[in-house]
Amino acid sequence: MAERRSSVLVVGSGLAGLTCAADLAASGRETLVVSAGRAGRDGATHRVHALAPWILLTAPWVRSDSPARFLRDLKRLGLGLERSGLAEVLADSAHAAALRLIEELDLVPMDAKPVTLAGDELPRGLRCLPRNRHIMLAPALARCAAAGVRVRDRTLVFGLLICEGRAAGAVVVDRDTGGVSSVEADAVVLACGGGGAVFPVTTSPRWCRGTGLALASAAGVLLHRPELAQVLPVTAIPPLFFPSSATLVRDRIEIGSRVLPPDRDVEATTIAIAEAASLGQPTLLELTAEAAAILPERVRASPAFSQGGRRVPLTVALHHGIGGVAIDAWGRTSLPGLYACGEAAGGVQGRRRTMGTGLLEASIFGKRAAQAIIHDQKERGSHAEGARMAAVPGLPVEPTAIERRLDELLGPLVVLRPREAVDGAVQELMAWPLDGFEPSRANEATALAAIRRQAALEMLGGFREDRFAAEPGAPPAGSGEGRWST
Ligand SMILES: Cc1cc2nc3c(=O)[nH]c(=O)nc-3n(C[C@H](O)[C@H](O)[C@H](O)COP(=O)(O)OP(=O)(O)OC[C@H]3O[C@@H](n4cnc5c(N)ncnc54)[C@H](O)[C@@H]3O)c2cc1C
């Protein structure tokens, strides 16, 4: 009798998921990618070029630089909050991974040499543009198709199946039919992106609402510092564009009648904008002609910009999850058979992350998770035969009402996290009435609300523990010790 091929379910079709899936399928695994929207177009990866002026790949590029020096800088910014061994992998692999990404994603470098980014001592930032400006992940989708990966679009994962102490599949809702079903697999990869969209103002797509945190939490899987996330100033006029940190630290920023001092860092700017917003004061960025030229047409066409002397209002947005599902250096989680990679995984970097590393992390750890699955299945086998149990986050009644309430509760907590507001939000979310999991009663709206509520509780719990949390009026965490850079 032919041996049954082992099957792997990959949740998410961003760079991490597609990288992992292509390698798994090439090794003979039956690989299914499930994605909430249209595969390859529904994650943060697809947005990189839409909401930022270029794609940045940060790595040691020049002779005077090295993985050891890069690691030292990653750790300086991390303030000890990274997971052991992970920053080492990023530092060691970044250069080769950046070259691979340029080739695999068909990127074109904008400059002959890397540029020195705000806050850095060495030129590490290679600015690139995609040759195909529409679908950044088209080459990755093509590689998956050639390797035999099956892809299921418009399918939302909202629970894990557990069998004999191992991950054994997922609970999904089909967004077209509304049907809830189980997808069984011998291993599951959480490549479902970060938790930006737990917050109402974010650069992340709506699907990236902390599925990794929520599913892992419901299954009792270890998390790493779910509260760690990067917040950035963006244009308040949609599409929430990031005008580059060189602009944010150099160009004139006005808050009420006050002008921010020159040579500030991005974190101090972010906190100043958030504090002003909490007092009802707008923030205006006045761009040079060169910086204005990179803004999207929609922002330049706005009355605020065209009549206001190249001035745009700024707001702050949750940008990138740094914490997430705890992994080892190969993407293994604390639950056998469950792996995580890309923004869903936590702890490659600590308190502050270096910009231009998200795609590298997705690619490096997507590949490592595939290798770990192949290795683990050879060592231990993969099939569990017992009954499957569903681990699903609590399904809130009145999902529309809780989504609205989450916007109200979390909107003011993007940067400033006063203890009473955090405690009040936790109490209210804990007290929200929940339905037990009953497949015939679950639907897309309850699944989405369940993911967001559970992820929010994990993040809020982390804010309570966060000794670096920005309280109103406090100086930026670790200011002077390091800067964010892009
Ligand atoms: C505006 C912007 C600019 C950026 N600029 C850069 C840059 O210049 N350089 C750089 O290196 N990084 C950059 N980043 C960061 C980088 O894009 C991300 O770190 C990286 O793309 C994350 O990839 P991922 O595969 O982990 O997640 P994503 O690309 O976010 O993919 C997540 C996938 O999971 C799916 N998903 C989520 N929840 C579910 C669910 N419940 N069920 C089914 N599917 C689900 C989503 O639909 C999506 O397919 C930027 C990010 C943004 C938003």
List the helices and strands and how they pair.
Layout (H helix, E strand, L loop, with lengths): L6 E5 L3 H12 L3 E5 L9 H8 L3 E4 L8 H12 L7 H19 L2 E3 L5 E2 L6 E8 L7 H10 L2 E3 L2 E9 L2 E9 L5 E5 L2 E4 L20 H8 L4 E2 L4 E7 L9 H6 L1 E4 L2 E2 L6 H13 L4 E4 L2 H4 L4 H4 L2 H4 L4 E11 L2 E3 L11 E3 L4 E2 L11 H23 L8 E3 L3 E2 L2 H12 L8 H13 L2 E2 L8 H22 L21
Parallel strand pairs: 1-2, 1-11, 2-7, 11-19, 18-20
Antiparallel strand pairs: 3-6, 4-6, 5-6, 8-9, 8-21, 9-10, 12-18, 13-17, 14-15, 14-16, 16-17, 22-23
The structure holds flavin-adenine dinucleotide.
Structural domain tally: 3
Helix coverage percent of residues?
Answer: 25-40%
Low-confidence stretches: 472-486
Biggest β-sheet: strands ordered side by side in the sheet:
7-2-1-11-19
What's the β-strand tally?
23
Separate helix tally = 15
Mean pLDDT: 91
State the end-to-end CA separation. Answer: 56 Å
- How would you sum up the major sheet? 5 strands, parallel
The first-level CATH class of the largest domain is given as: Alpha Beta
Secondary structure category: alpha+beta
- Quaternary organisation of the protein chains: single chain
CATH A-level architecture of the largest domain:
3-Layer(bba) Sandwich
CATH topology type of the largest domain: FAD/NAD(P)-binding domain
Basic shape: globular
Output the radius of gyration.
22 Å
Instruction: Provide the β-strand percentage band.
Output: 15-25%
Bound molecules: flavin-adenine dinucleotide
